[in-house]
Each structure stands twice: as C-alpha cells, then as structure tokens.
C-alpha cells in the first residue's frame, strides 16, 4: 500500500490559505489586547469570556497527549466528533465525484455528512455476527473511494470489530480508514491510536462525550499523522472549541481515576442488567457488548418501546435499522435507573 495524501486531498484544499485570526498572529502574554475587536469591558457573567479562545487548544491537547500517549501534533479537537467527520468529507472528497464506504448497521452521522457534502455512499452491510465483510468491501472499492468508516466498538450493535480485519484494510486501501472509537473506554480491545506510526492512512476518532461524561461540552478528538492533522487545522473554523469547553475539559482531564472507577462500575451494571433481562419471554437475544449499552433483540420492539415511554423510561428503538430488526438499544444507567427499567419490564405484557 502506497498511501499518498497528495493524491487524495481535494485540489482546492491543497492550495487553501486558512483564515488567519488575531490569536494566530500573536501568541503569548501582553498587558493590553487591542487586536481582535473584543469587548474590553468583560462579560456580563461571573467568569469573563470576552477574549477569544486558543484556536489550537494547546493546553487541552498537552493534557490529552499525556493521557493517550500521543504527541499533541497528532491530535485534532473538534466540536464533537461530528466536526472531524465533516472535515474529512470536505478535505478529501470531491462532491459529485468521489465516494465513501460505510458498513451498516453503524453510526448514522457518516451517511448524513456524505449527503450534506454531496458525496456518494456505498453501503456494505456487516455480516450476521456484525463483523466486516472484507470480500464485499474489496469489491465496492474503486478509484474514487476516498474514505472507509468503521465504528469499533460499533454503534448500535455494541461489539468490537476484529482487529486483524481493520489492519487488512489499512494495509491494502490507498484512501483513509476512519476508526471511530467513541466507546473504546468500555472495551476490552486496545485503541488503534498506538498504530498511527504504522499506518499513514489511519484516522482514529474518540470523544469526551461517553466515558468522560462531557456530552454537553461537545469535544471530539481525531488522532492521525501530522500531515492529516495539518489538513484538519487548515479547514476548521478559527475558534471551533469555545473557551468554556476548553477550561472545563481541562479540569475534567485531571480526574482520570474518577473516570476509571465509573467505567468499572458501569461494566458491573452492564453485566447485571444482561442477567436480569435475558430470561424475559419477549427477549430473543442480547448481543455481546464492548460499549456502555446493550442491543436487545425482542419479539416486539415497537410495543416495548411504546410501553416504556408511557412509564417514563426512554430507550432507543432500532427496529427499522438493517440487521437490527426487533432490537432495542439500551444505555446502561445507574443501579437505580437499571432497576427501574427491570421493574418496568417485569410489568410488560404482550397483547
């Protein structure tokens, strides 16, 4: 495999001169800032937010570098992982010409971003046990295939994709393989971020929304080669992560031990939840999970979903998703929330 970023980057992006913000042109400390047309009087809040944030989120990246074992220059921070997904399309896919491959059932934003960016989508369904169909993927690849998206652990199925299958694609595909690891903190599998030096065409997505409990802050991460990260930084808006999110993320990232403890508790609750509901008459199967949710195949997903909403419990109905017919996706909650779900399901009666 001879991956060459210059062969897949869009010509207009290759020559793009990024917007130069006031904070790009001056970095460091000064006593008087009169360069960015900010409100010098401050903010009508207890904390001042009148200064523009660090456009490259240096402090947050340095902390993530220490936690992840990846140099800061290999990290991109986005307004959620969704921003990184969109930038991949805008940077490497020519609208109306190129195509990408997704492997349903999978995270829905890949398809939405493809449609927004007018990029053709090729769907190669996972196998019956929710693994990659490598032969069908190979057949789907053509000269205009720029990206392949693989979610592992996968949403909505919960399982990890076989590592050797992903490595096979990385070694043989001349475009970019995107491994979305939003749920990696709950998995027994190791992250692909340690393989960045091995594969120039690898982009790994992670997030602070799941295990780190910061969904409201919208901080997503992309890990890739310096060449690819440089493209991300060229295309992104100048101040894509606001100051409040940067400061709160930095504060949260000091609490690794707390997050690891929550993960242990959640995995115990996941096992307990599976045991508690597996023998209900309406439960056909519970698929193995490496995530903070379980996919449950039922005899009547629509009726169970409707009943649960009526008693104030919201799960995700995946009945209309390919290969997930009859399935509900249930996020693992606290002990009390899980017990409330179990008690409610005990009262459910099929009509």
UniProtKB/TrEMBL annotation:
Entry's Gene Ontology molecular function annotations: histidinol-phosphate transaminase activity; pyridoxal phosphate binding
Catalytic activity reported: L-histidinol phosphate + 2-oxoglutarate = 3-(imidazol-4-yl)-2-oxopropyl phosphate + L-glutamate
Pathway entry: Lipid metabolism; Amino-acid biosynthesis; L-histidine biosynthesis; L-histidine from 5-phospho-alpha-D-ribose 1-diphosphate: step 7/9
Superkingdom as given in the UniProt entry: Bacteria
Gene Ontology biological process terms in this record: L-histidine biosynthetic process
Alphabetic keyword roster: Amino-acid biosynthesis, Aminotransferase, Histidine biosynthesis, Pyridoxal phosphate, Transferase
Enzyme class label: transferase
Record flagged with keyword Lipid metabolism: no
Reported cofactor(s): pyridoxal 5'-phosphate
Designated name of the protein: Histidinol-phosphate aminotransferase
Family named by the database record: Belongs to the class-II pyridoxal-phosphate-dependent aminotransferase family. Histidinol-phosphate aminotransferase subfamily.
EC number: 2.6.1.9
Subunit record text: Homodimer.
Presence of keyword Transferase: yes
Classification via PROSITE patterns: AA_TRANSFER_CLASS_2 (PS00599)
UniProt domain Aminotransferase class I/classII large: residue ranges: 48-345
Entries under PANTHER family matching the protein: HISTIDINOL-PHOSPHATE AMINOTRANSFERASE (PTHR42885:SF2), HISTIDINOL-PHOSPHATE AMINOTRANSFERASE-RELATED (PTHR42885)
Modified residues (N6-(pyridoxal phosphate)lysine): 210
CDD domains: AAT_like
Cited NCBIfam families: hisC
Organism, scientific name: Pelobium manganitolerans
């Amino acid at each position: 495999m001879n991956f060459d970023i210059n062969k897949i980057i869009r010509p207009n992006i290759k020559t793009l001169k990024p917007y130069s913000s006031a904070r790009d042109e001056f970095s460091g400390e000064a006593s008087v800032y009169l360069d960015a047309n900010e409100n010098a009087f401050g903010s009508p809040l207890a904390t001042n937010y009148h200064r523009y944030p660090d456009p490259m989120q240096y402090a947050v990246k340095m902390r993530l570098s220490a936690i992840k074992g990846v140099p800061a220059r290999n990290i991109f921070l986005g307004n959620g992982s969704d921003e990184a997904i969109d930038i991949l399309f805008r940077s490497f896919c020519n609208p109306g010409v190129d195509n990408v491959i997704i492997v349903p059932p999978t995270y829905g934003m890949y398809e939405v971003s493809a449609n927004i960016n007018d990029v053709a989508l090729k769907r190669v369904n996972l196998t019956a046990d929710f693994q990659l169909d490598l032969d069908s993927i190979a057949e789907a690849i053509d000269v205009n295939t720029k990206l392949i998206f693989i979610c592992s652990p996968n949403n909505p199925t919960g399982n990890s994709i076989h590592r050797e299958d992903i490595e096979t694609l990385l070694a043989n595909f001349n475009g970019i393989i995107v491994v979305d690891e939003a749920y990696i903190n709950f998995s027994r599998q190791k992250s692909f971020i340690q393989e960045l030096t091995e594969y120039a065409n690898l982009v790994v997505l992670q997030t602070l929304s799941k295990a780190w409990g910061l969904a409201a802050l919208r901080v997503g991460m992309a890990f890739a080669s310096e060449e690819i990260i440089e493209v991300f930084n060229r295309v992104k808006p100048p101040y894509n992560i606001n100051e409040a999110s940067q400061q709160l993320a930095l504060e949260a990232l000091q609490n690794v031990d707390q997050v690891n403890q929550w993960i242990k508790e959640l995995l115990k609750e996941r096992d307990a939840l599976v045991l508690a509901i597996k023998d209900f008459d309406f439960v056909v199967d519970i698929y193995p999970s490496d995530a903070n949710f379980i996919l449950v195949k039922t005899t009547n997903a629509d009726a169970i979903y409707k009943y649960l909403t009526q008693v104030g419990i919201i799960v995700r109905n995946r009945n209309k998703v390919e290969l997930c017919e009859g399935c509900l996706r249930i996020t693992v909650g606290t002990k009390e929330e899980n017990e409330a779900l179990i008690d409610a399901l005990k009262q459910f009666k099929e009509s």
